[in-house]
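Office hours follow-up: a student asked to see two folded examples consecutively, so here they are.
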Amino acid sequence: MLLTLTGGAGAGKTTLSGALVAAAAEGPVRVLHGDDYWYAEPGRGVWAPDGTGTPRLDVGDPRSIDDERLDADLGAALAAAPVVIVEGLFARRVASPRSRPRLDVFVDVAADLRLARKIERKCVAGDFPLAVLLRNYVEHRRDAHERHIEPLRTDCGLTVDGTLAPEVLARRIWTAAGAGTIARRDGAGPQGAAMTKDMAERNLRVVFLGDSFTQGVGDPEFRGWVGRVAADCWADLAPGPAGLTVFNLGVRRDTSADVRARCWGETAVRALPAADNRLVLSVGSNDATEEDGRPRVAPDACPENVAALLDGALERGLAPFVVGPPPVVDAGAPHLGRLLGLAEGIAGVCARRGVPFADVTGELAEDRTWVAEALAGDGAHPGAGGYRRLADLVLRGGFREWSTERGPGRRGR
């Protein structure tokens, strides 16, 4: 079993993990602490100069976590112990094998109390300058919490009051886990079995629209991120009319305008009136590519195309999910700058419509596996490892939860 504890700095996650170990009914229990996985040297993670000009790691940004090392240690821990706890600011983001049950817990403590705890621990008990801590909090950490940590609350299966005694919380969490609050990824257990049965009965048909990254160009295993995400989420569903059908309609060099032009013709022949029809969209990488000295699609037009696609999907009863545009490594910093701007615009379009959005651009641009595999190939497309990293980011971005919810049905014009 995997148990994650997510919450802001000062929420008491480390203390709670100790209480969970002490109260565990089975063991051994392994604990991985997120603070052990920060990058140690500039060049990896997000760094910024402090007041003296000394580079400091931005520990409020998830890109400062060494995900590769954490994933490797998590895999080894799950192979060696029946229960593994991961605690940290961004613990909910870790990926885990389908065969393990999982419970994600958000430890909720009000901002003022978390700040007071930090002051007591670092300034009263320690010698950290109070003025520096308060300035960091006001100028950066407060906003970073709202941007990166608070959204993970809705992705967790259980939220607990971090002001309660750790022993009380530990009993509550283990009780929730034992009562079936978690859903096994292999469909075992009452909730997992019910979920699988429900999904099978509703005839799930999922269209993936996008470019060559959606198609999975460069993957020697011919699965790409689409195949990996589908396998992680729906491996227990039988293909065909009684279960699941996945359509990968990625087309090389397609821009958002190209996808918009072909979308409804493509989806109309694949959707069924009584089915749970879905649309997964990922565009933008080709929009930001320059031809004849300018981007192939104007920066303002890309979010407009995505908005039109999402509105059309909702009107047609297609439940949409959007994946941010992956970076093109050999296109350099100017392309990445344009792409990050498009990703921000697309995220805003999704937020205004309540459509889930997996933000992948920035993290992939700094991911060692993605970059190395792309440079070893055609400069743009990664291999199997890079697509695995992209699939994990999509799953962490809420895809798994979206995949188990029922579609919205047709919306009137």
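And the second, which I mentioned at the end of office hours:
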Amino acid sequence: MTTHLGTLQRRVETVLVEFKRSRNTWNELNVEGFPAANKLINTVIQSKYSDDLGYWHPSLRQEFPNIIQKYDIKLKKLIEQDDKKVMVILERMAKQQIKMMTFIREFIAIQQRVGQVLENDQIPLFKTCPIHVFVQRSKIIIDMYTQELYSKQLMVQQGMKEISNQEEGLALLSAWQNQPSICEKTIQEFEDICNVELDLL
């Protein structure tokens, strides 16, 4: 039984390390995505102003009759380019979320195996916490990332290109940066448990 338990402990350690790596990668992508989202929003706002005839000096419009139309075409191309950059980052974040979902399936499989090996999955797997503590807390955290991904997808698909003023843009940028669906306190508590139990994270 000791051999089987050691194998399960190593599997848990591996999953926890990979889970931590995915969270770190997600955070890096969130930081990387902020300037891209900011550029997209600024271009959209600029396009709103350029539609206003008052934005253009009369002599400029007189000398270049098609300047508004040409500038509008240019901005639309920039918006599409910026939008694609943000979408690529979102796709990479989605890959991390998919990885996290595999981690929870792995945890559940380990929990079932622990129940078979120990005949009681309430017995501590390492020092004090039984396996269900890792399973439940991991699921809560992964659900947060799933909700945050959904929020960001809505933000990009329905929000950023539809804003009408700077205040709306700032609100979206704040939401992107601060990730309201992700509770850092919950993650820190989980990492503290892992540190106590495994001296791992």
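Two things to take away from it. The helical segments are 2-50, 58-63, 67-118, 131-159, 166-178, 184-198. The mean pLDDT is 86.
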